[in-house]
Structure prediction request, 579 residues.
Amino acid sequence: MTRIVVGPFNRVEGDLEVSLDLDDGRVGAAYVNSPLFRGFEQVLVGRPALDALAIVPRICGICSVAQSHAAALALADAMGLAPTPNGLLSRHLVTATENLADHLAHFYLFFMPDFTRPAYAGRPWHAGAVTRFTAMTGEAAAEVLAARTGFLRLMGLLAGRWPHSLALQPGGSTKAVSAAERVRLLSHLREFRSVLERRLFGDALQAVAGLSSRDALLAWAGERDSDFAAFIRMALDLGLDRIGRADDAFLSYGAYGLFPAGSWQAGAGAELAPAAIAEDSRYAWLADGRPRHPAQGETIVAADKADAYTWCKAPRYGGQPFEVGALARQVVAGHPLLRDLVARDGGSVLARVVARLLELALVVPAMETWVQSLQPGEPYCTSGLVPDEASGVGLAEAARGSLGHWLSIRRGRIERYQIIAPTTWNFSPRDDGGMPGPLEAALVGLPAGDTAPPTIQHVVRSFDPCMVCTVH
Amino acid sequence: MENLGCKGTQAHADCNLRPWNGNGSCLRGGFACIACTEPGFESPGHAFQETPKLAGIPIGLPTDMPKAWFVALAALSKSATPKRVRDNATVDQPVVLPAIRKKGGGK
Prediction:
């Protein structure tokens, strides 16, 4: 048995290293290391409660709005505030803009360039992939970056800027959209929709959103001239529909009032039970202790701990590792296409990528209706006082999955702040019982080593890791 | 905004002249500037969204204003603030719009 280390990974946010124990050129066991410690939870302790809104977005440059959304929800919970109807729509719009921009960037800039690797030079689709998807120089990157920039104008209008906005407040949103701005929002959305329909899907968004089974997806892709269809053909050729399976246990906190919260496992769904969440620090460079619910969680550095191999804690739901992300969100919400893909081959690389693109097709039309429902002249925000003693929970969905903030306030200041980010779930290390995290499980049995095809790369990137959030 | 910790008049930055992605800035987004371009902005010594004041007058000075002028003008402008500005300052969108003042005759 030999051990190899894959990493640092390029085209992921932050630092990631994966150690693989190889048996005969195949992965026997995988250990995922998040090698950077950041300490945001410690930074927050002792600060005035509302300072969290300024600090937590800076955890991450790509999902900063998701962090600020979760903090606003946790503070709203502690303050007993509910957002105004306009504020709620504005929140949906801002978080959806970030999530969809991330999905688009992941597909074109992070995931697809792997198909242009020299290892695939013999494949019939390789030349086409090189022209379209090569990192930096492929023709798709130029088109997509322009579309993404135009789409992010929504963020400029609704949140002032991106990242690190203070627009999402416990009582709603600070930006009151005027009637003229509402028209501009809609026109940016329509431009974005037209790029998606022309280049990414080659079909109307409604048609893509309506695909209801694996067979329907394959028939739809056929010989269609679009990037999504090209991806389906390449992925099937490489068997990406049958690899990358973790434990097929999915968790979602629910998003936009469109996709409900819950869990899904072994073909059956269940209501979300936040009390079942706990974090274990057995293999993290953090002081040991029994697995704790994040409301009682602690982050105490123990950098010299023997056996530890990462800065990431091991979150568990009912004692088990759960996968989060667009696939989990859609499986929990019951989308027939993804339920069918998961029922046949589990949570594969193909299913994860399809779920992200499907969200683009599902959410852009919803955003158009939210914009039309904004009422200029009506309030966007309510205010309230921070109580001296309180605690709150903010559960939100970021592009990469379920994000939770747990805070408690004492004498008006933050006494404890615990964060469980999506990649903490997906790239979790082993827990006290030795149970590996979702990525660690998904890598077992795959070919690896110098002569192996880049299968490992596809699987790791199919989770769209955001390491800086993981280690917050 | 001056009540909510805004440092827009103190930050050395051109955010409002050169908007983010062509159409955004913190102030246009309706929230306070925390002077994130300044070294040490992360520890301002007060809550980010509150303005430290002495006798009702903010202690931070706009970058290009002498202190005596600022104190005099702050007091003067406070007493001369029209109802339109005062009412609009505490809500998220204008509730009193500028109107044409009626002239002469009392008609």
